[in-house]
Amino acid sequence: MERIGQIYPLDQAPHFIGYWGVDKEVEAWIRSIPTASAVPVKHIAIAAAYGITNRDRADAWVEITGDCLILGREAFGRVPLYWMRQDKTIWFASQLQLLLPLQRNTVSIPAVYGYSCFSYVPNPLTPVEGIFTIPAGTEQVWQGQDESLQPRSVRLNQWQEADELITDETLAVSELKRLLKKSIDIKTTDLSSSEPIGVLLSGGLDSSVVAALLVQAGLKVRGYTLDFGDAVNSEVPYAEQVAHHLNIPLVKVDASAKRVKQALISTVKALDLPFGDGVTVPLYLLCQAASQDVQVIFNGEGGDQLFAGWTNKPLIASGVYRSLQPESNSPLDEFTEAYLRTFHRLWGYESQVYLPAIYDQIRSLQPADWLQDALDPTHTTDLLQRLRRATLMLKGAQNIHPRATAIGWAHGLQVRSPFCDRDLADWTFRLSGALTLQGSCEKYILKRAVEDWLPEEIVWREKRGMGVPLTLRCFNNWWSSLGDWLNPAKLRAEGLLKPDIAEQIVAGRLGAHIQGRRIGETLWLLMMWELWRSEVLGSEAVKPSWDHPFWMPKAIWSYRRRWQE
Length: 565
Known about the structure:
This protein is an alpha+beta fold. 41% of the residues lie in helices and 15% in strands.
């Protein structure tokens, strides 16, 4: 059987689309994608920091050898890779949007449900039926002899606990400093000391460590930080303190409600997939500003996943409690559910969120199934190691890293993440739990290793998340826009969500946990899905209805609500 492999690099590198199979007539489809020209090749590799390159540096790759097709991704998940089957042909691309012209696009119900639980679509699903993503850290292999074109999945690596753990704090500090500097050396080897580079500087520990390492490497560093203006807990003073300590310029980027709203559509298109976290548009604005000065941008993404930076103490306490309660049923399921709750999304509210027909379809789905591989205890006996493995595979590889790469690429930036280093990551699984979480102090060993590089207040202060004031902005700046983004007529036409979902959320009637800041986060989650569906998938425009409260001033709505109650 003759097998044909073609790859189509696009003018706007580093994206590509290609096919492998026996049906030559599918070549006609590619003409509907502007700027594509056919280039038959044996392999292609793509990296977040370097564009199209060789496999040694690759985050994702395609190899065509005789009657075999291999699609693979590196474990950190920085670069996505998609595929779909069309008769006897496998299409693959570095962007979901490149595959959309090739088929009739129908929303995947399991994918939208997964998105509502996690704020990202869980791998290997995509929001479109029939299009899939290669999970991070795996290869999918198609053999020509298999007429069904079913792939074989190969796990390339497992994040797993080492047999012997490091307990000596002095040794751990020394080795960690060496590994951090080694990672920076690798990621700066092609950079000139005379050309400026950027660092996304939040004022938190991870980005501050990266900035300090870049300065130590003798590079010309510029910092970029977000100024929300109306944020209750601004991080700007901390970013300013770090910049002053390192003697680097700091650019404060306006992330006001008006600027975020202006950049919404551009961000949704740049992300390619729907991502429901409130930081996405501010990060788009940050990269937009940085692209005016630099071509390479560094970030601190990955530090939380490596050093247990998210608050794990409640889950650890829960695990210890269950270990003392042997009569507890299905401890793995209970632990998985506890982890699922850390996403703080719409799991548990399905009957209130979805229309009855959709609810019937998702009732048999278990979101815990999308977590089981990451939470598999056979690879890590220590509870904290297990949680770190999960955050690497879930919140990191499926959410944080791919969206950071997509946003950077949208502005022509090379995105480099020093904490995404395999040697460094493997080393962290040699650490004893006490060196990672000491008492109530998270990321203890990282703080000890860098305490002479940065101000004490930066190193030892408690972590605070990026303060995107979503609820405040929804109730004030974006009140009337909610009636457009989540318009009941639009939701009725799409047939997924209950038409009055936005009203239920702002009134605090959706559920006990959807209060305060969760109101804004939930509205944002749903709004980003709707914008993705209209702007990327291209859903048909619908005449808006007025059966919602957002057409009236918010003050009048509040008064009316109090009167009715």
